[in-house]
Specification:
The complex is a heterodimer. Chain A is an alpha+beta fold. Chain A is built from 14 helices and 36 strands. Chain B is elongated and about 90 Å long. The chains are: A alpha+beta, B alpha/beta. At the A-B interface, strand 1 and helix 2 of A face strand 8, strand 9 and helix 9 of B.
């Protein structure tokens, strides 16, 4: 026997309280007849003997009570809709596809499109007859099966009610494939046999509740599906949307930042809207934008002074239109991250001077140590493997084990063995530079003289950045999540006269520029000013330092998501549902809480502060163009939208049942009052 | 609950006479008999244990100075030359006390138990008056007994009984006694009534208690007090048909007519059967109690004939002959 729940929880509570009420009324008799007796002396003794007030003593004599309880029990039993499995055919199959993308939050219909879609879907559920089954799928850029095929209307209605409104874009393809799963079962073929269908096809009717704001499905085969398109919304709309918003550094004046936005109007009237730019919730600029119907307009904000141009930018259109989700856009500058650099050198003054320049100091904290530290295994292990260092520069020395950081090795190779150095020869004449690489930008090394050097051969995957007549003398190669750069000639060399310069490069402007470029690139300094942005629900790839044991991402709605660190530092974050700014913070403090006297890191101060930011913006002309399509084309078939009200069945049996139960209680009340 | 809704089971007291002439003529031929011989206060028609003045010779005794010379047997002095005094049996009266239970529970029945109790008292009292006995009539609530002697006081005795009956009806309690009512007008139960009787009555004789014995404080203590007085005790246990065979049924709230105590009860055939069992046990207990202590016990119904009670049952118990 199977059961189908046909009442809600509240209705069950009311129904189950009725037997209790009837029994209560029986015990709390409203009125007993008063009879005078000469003395209750004998009655008292009789009552004491029989315990007349005991429950069963009282219940067993009331046939009326028994009948009424049986009546209520029968009603409860009926509400459970008992049934047996049989070979009776299942009725119509319906698939309710409900669009919950961003455009469905438009308010051109009351209260909003998603609510209207839910209401219409529930009407279809209520009009289902005995053996009909239905399935509920919510779709945006992905499809969520809210409820599988069932005939339980309460569960279907609950599933419909639970569909959330999202800010996602729309893609019907996945939803249709999910809907077609049972209607168009897959086919398999074996060797030498014709392909066969893996399951029996179960035709179904797809009820599509949407505004049609998605790409037409041209290569979709409906097969056994028949589609009823219920357009939600109106064709006459008025909406203004921000379709792009970004911040860029002014190329001519690097200390200035420019904010660009593109605003589009969807409607029949020309509009003039004001756009307000906020930096960390403080209004910093506002402009008026005139937009022609179905046209776009660009707007630029010039923001001087770098001190005040870091943070979260929010552009808001002060216009009350039918879709609010595209009236605000976010952009942010990434937080400043000074790199930690460890220079291992034995008194190379030229190198030490080159890391003390103001430019280097602005992007990195550099600490200089003697190569003797490499002999102290414990100390070098603590320094190199703690994860606090972003870049280690080894000047004519090399560690026992490569550090957990990027390295620049001068006249030395990593101890891993995959790098090789050629024989020392001299002089070395530089021939070519790879200026496309960030480390080599703006370098001019034509007049640099080098007394002696060695050819450098990087491992597989490496890249040669500097060539000389003896071969490549500067190359870079990845080592797991890190990168190792090897320079084939030293800055100084040991000769009979002691330590002397090996090259005159140190006297040229390009040397500190080269060092700056290396530190900027290898220490992980800020290479990209503006934070990345994604559309809601789309995954974003984050590169996060591997020295932290975990990260928390704080969404605009305050929800915290945790990210586990990965060896390569690459993370894919998918919970980007909300429009706004997401902040990434390190979740641990242990790694940065080491002894300050030996730690070269100032990252401890930045610990638990924002490591990275990114934004989520709609930026979808298809969602912002909220005009409802009257017809659709799916798989080459035109699907006309249903106009007017869809047929529905309104049932009154619950009300009649309630009235019957009320009559039972009323009859009981009257019965007791009569007595 | 309001008072008007309570239907009183009491019908208006019968205005017919307590004793019909025919019944009175039958009573005149009867006599109250005590199973013990008591000393009376006045000369009557009963032989006494004391020697006194009567026509029936009892004995002789030696003369002592101071004796009444009229009782000296001069014939014997003449023959023996010694003075002897003749003694005669003394004849004394019999004390007959009838106590009627006039609590409100006696108002039930048709005729009411109280009226039947008054008829019984009138019948026994009339027999006593006809035989010159000292007849004392009292009720539980009365402060002092009414004493009658001689047949000429018959009408006074009957009017006294009627007064007791009417006073009890007039003092019908409320179904829900208020605290003030219970404070100011406490009903006197059987035990208290017997105690009061014993304290004011020092003589001996016959005492007849007519009651339904439905006192929640019990009746045993009161009867034991009478036993201590060495009285010849008769208990007439009077019950109404409503008490013996209740006709009520359904879910009821029974209200005690005396004290307003209420009991919610669902009366059905099994419940009535249990009631009958309880009633039977109640009567048996009372009978056993009396028989063990030499108290004559007679159980009767209020709708039974008083003549039958007097002529058969009380004669059988030896009260009347």
């Amino acid at each position: 026997m199977t059961w189908i729940n046909s009442l809600t929880a509240m209705q069950w509570i009311v129904l189950l309280s009725i037997p209790t009420l009837i029994i209560s009324l029986y015990f709390l008799k409203l009125k007993r007849s008063l009879i005078d007796v000469p003395s209750t002396y004998l009655w008292r003794k009789t009552i004491e003997d029989s315990h007349v007030n005991s429950l069963w003593q009282r219940l067993r004599r009331s046939l009326l009570l028994l009948l009424q309880l049986l009546f209520v029990a029968a009603i409860i039993f009926a509400c459970l809709r008992p049934g047996w499995s049989s070979s009776q055919n299942i009725g119509q199959r319906s698939i309710l596809l409900i669009d919950n993308s961003a455009s469905m939050t438009a308010t051109d219909v009351t209260p909003c499109r998603i609510d209207v879609a839910k209401t219409k879907a529930k009407e279809i559920v209520r009009s289902m007859t005995g053996n009909d089954v239905a399935m509920v799928i919510a779709f945006s850029d992905r499809a969520d099966v809210q409820q599988g095929f069932t005939g339980d209307r309460n569960r279907l209605i609950a599933a419909i009610d639970n569909i959330p409104a999202t800010a996602r874009t729309t893609d019907l393809n996945e939803a249709m494939r999910a809907a077609a799963g049972l209607a168009n079962p897959g086919r398999v073929s074996f060797d030498g046999m014709n392909d066969i269908q893996v399951a029996e096809a179960l035709p179904a009717t797809v009820n599509l509740f949407s505004d049609g704001g998605f790409l037409s499905l041209t290569d979709f085969n409906l097969g056994n599906l028949s589609v009823r398109y219920v357009p939600i919304g109106s064709e006459k709309i008025s909406n203004v949307a921000i379709e792009a918003f970004s911040i860029l550094r002014n190329e001519e004046r690097p200390d200035e930042i420019q904010a660009y936005a593109r605003v589009a109007s969807y409607g029949e009237k020309a509009l003039e809207v004001s756009a307000s730019l906020y930096l960390d919730d403080a209004l910093i600029d506002a402009v008026k934008i005139k937009i022609e119907p179905d046209k776009e307009a660009g707007v630029t904000f010039d923001l001087a002074s770098t001190d005040t141009t870091r943070g979260v930018f929010r552009l808001v259109l002060d216009h009350d239109d039918q879709l609010l989700v595209d009236n605000a856009a976010y952009a942010a500058t990434r937080p400043v991250k000074p790199g930690n650099v460890l220079l291992v050198t034995s008194g190379n003054k030229a190198l030490e001077k080159s890391v003390e320049t103001a430019a280097v100091q602005s992007i990195a904290n550099v600490r200089i140590v003697e190569p003797s530290i490499l002999l102290d295994e414990a100390e070098s292990e603590r320094l190199f493997q703690s994860g606090d260092v972003d870049l280690v520069i080894f000047d004519q020395c090399r560690p026992q084990r490569m550090p957990s950081a990027n390295t620049l090795m001068i006249a030395a190779t990593p101890p891993t063995g995959d790098w090789s150095l050629g024989e020392k020869t001299g002089p070395v004449n530089l021939i070519d530079l790879d200026r496309t690489h960030p480390m080599m930008e703006f370098l001019e090394l034509g007049s640099v003289g080098i007394i002696e050097g060695q050819a450098v051969t990087p491992p597989e995957g490496g890249k040669v950045l500097m060539r000389a007549d003896i071969g490549s003398v500067f190359a870079i190669a990845p080592r797991g999540p890190y990168q190792d750069a090897v320079l084939g000639f030293g800055i100084v060399r040991q000769s009979d006269k002691g330590t002397e310069l090996n090259t005159d490069w140190v006297r040229k402007r390009s040397f500190p520029l080269f060092i700056y470029g290396c530190i900027d690139f290898l220490s992980g300094g800020v290479t990209q000013e503006a934070a990345m942005t994604v559309q809601p629900g789309q995954p974003i790839s984050l590169v996060l330092p591997s020295r932290f044991s975990g990260f928390n991402v704080f969404a605009p709605n305050g929800i915290k998501s945790s990210i586990e660190p990965t060896p390569g530092g690459q993370h894919v974050f998918t919970a980007t549902e909300s429009i706004g700014v997401y902040r990434v913070q390190a979740s641990n403090q242990a790694s940065a809480a080491s002894d300050d006297t030996t730690s070269i890191s100032t990252e401890s101060q930045a610990n638990n502060k924002t490591i990275d930011v990114f934004t989520s913006n709609l930026f979808s002309p298809r969602e912002s163009s909220i005009a409802t399509l009257p017809d659709l084309s799916i798989g080459g078939e035109k699907v006309a939208g249903l106009v007017g009200k869809s047929p529905s069945r309104i049932e009154y049996w619950r009300w009649l049942l309630s009235a019957g139960l009320c009559l039972v209680v009323f009859e009981w009340f009257i019965y007791h009052r009569r007595h | 609950m309001s008072d008007p809704e309570i239907e009183s089971p009491i019908t208006a007291s019968s205005t017919s006479q307590l004793l019909s002439p025919v019944w009175m003529s039958k009573l005149e031929r009867m006599e109250l008999v005590s199973r013990k011989i008591f000393r009376g206060r006045m000369k009557g028609e009963r032989r006494s244990t004391r020697k006194g003045q009567s026509v029936e010779f009892a004995d002789f005794r030696n003369y002592v100075p101071g004796d009444d010379l009229r009782f000296i047997d001069w014939n014997l002095f003449a023959r023996l030359d010694r003075l002897y005094l003749k003694l005669f049996l003394e004849e004394e009266d019999l004390h007959v006390s009838v106590i009627i239970d006039d609590t409100p529970s006696m108002h039930f029945g048709s005729p009411s138990k109280l009226w039947v109790a008054a008829q019984i008292a009138a019948s026994l009292g009339y027999i006593g008056l006809c035989r010159g006995d000292r007849v004392s009539i009292s009720s539980f609530q009365s402060t002092s007994p009414q004493v009658f002697r001689g047949r000429s006081n018959t009408s006074r005795m009957l009017s006294g009984l009627t007064e007791i009956h009417d006073a009890s009806l007039a003092a019908k309690p409320s179904s829900k006694p208020t605290s003030s009512q219970t404070d100011t007008k406490l009903l006197i139960g059987l035990n208290a009534a017997m105690k009061a009787f014993c304290s004011r009555n020092t003589g001996k004789g016959i005492i007849v208690v007519v009651s339904d014995l439905m006192d929640k404080n019990g009746y045993e203590a009161g009867l034991k007090m009478l036993l201590a007085k060495e009285l010849d005790i008769f208990v007439i246990h009077l019950l109404s048909p409503e008490e013996i065979s209740p006709t009520i049924t359904g879910d009821l709230k029974l209200v005690d007519y005396e004290d307003g105590d209420s009991r919610e009860v669902s009366i059905s055939a099994p419940m009535l059967a249990r009631y009958q069992k309880t009633l039977s046990g109640f009567i048996t207990t009372a009978r056993d109690f009396c028989q063990r202590r030499g108290i004559a016990y007679v159980s009767t119904r209020s709708d039974a004939s008083v003549e039958t009670l007097i002529e058969q049952y009380l004669r059988l118990r030896g009260l009347v002959q």
